[in-house]
Amino acid sequence: MSVFIFFLYFINKDISIRILGTIALLLLLVVWYIFEYKKNKVNSINPLIHFEEKNIKRFILITYEGEKEKEWYCDGVKSFLIGKGTTSKDVDIELGDTHYSKFISNEHAVLNFTNGFWYIEDLNSTNGVGLKKNGEEFALRLKPMVAYKVDEGDIIYISKAKILVR
Predict the structure, then answer these.
(1) 79-110 as b/e, with b when 16 or more CB fall inside 10 Å?
(2) Do the Cβ atoms of 100 and 70 come closer than 8 Å?
(3) Which terminus of the chain, N or C, has less C-beta within 10 A?
(4) Rounded to two decimals, what is the model's pTM?
């Protein structure tokens, strides 16, 4: 490459060859940039490459004032059913004794661990599930029966109850 540039600008005296050579160099740089950009984008969503960065350890129910009310550790757990337990059905994240229990369905949502990531899914609840991504200003209301990836620092809204992902 350096020999080509040296020839193009120092040995060659023909201006048309310099212009064509410069255009070829610019095209090469653009193609290289696009290739590197796509490669980096693919790596950023590949769970096998960034698996070690995903270190969610627990889900924390926080009060309106931001204080910890309850927490659930997820080491070795593959799924959490969120809601209000009944005599016939237990849930893993019990919200029936919280301040917002009247807004929470018996089987409100589910958290699933798949391919190194946690996903939240609204189980067609009455009052919905929201997800506020870390660093975002507003929460997104989730579509029922669609899985959404959660990351450390996100806040999950089970109706009005807030669960912090840590």
Answers:
(1) ebbbbbbeeeeebbbbbeebebeebbbbbbbb
(2) no
(3) N
(4) 0.68
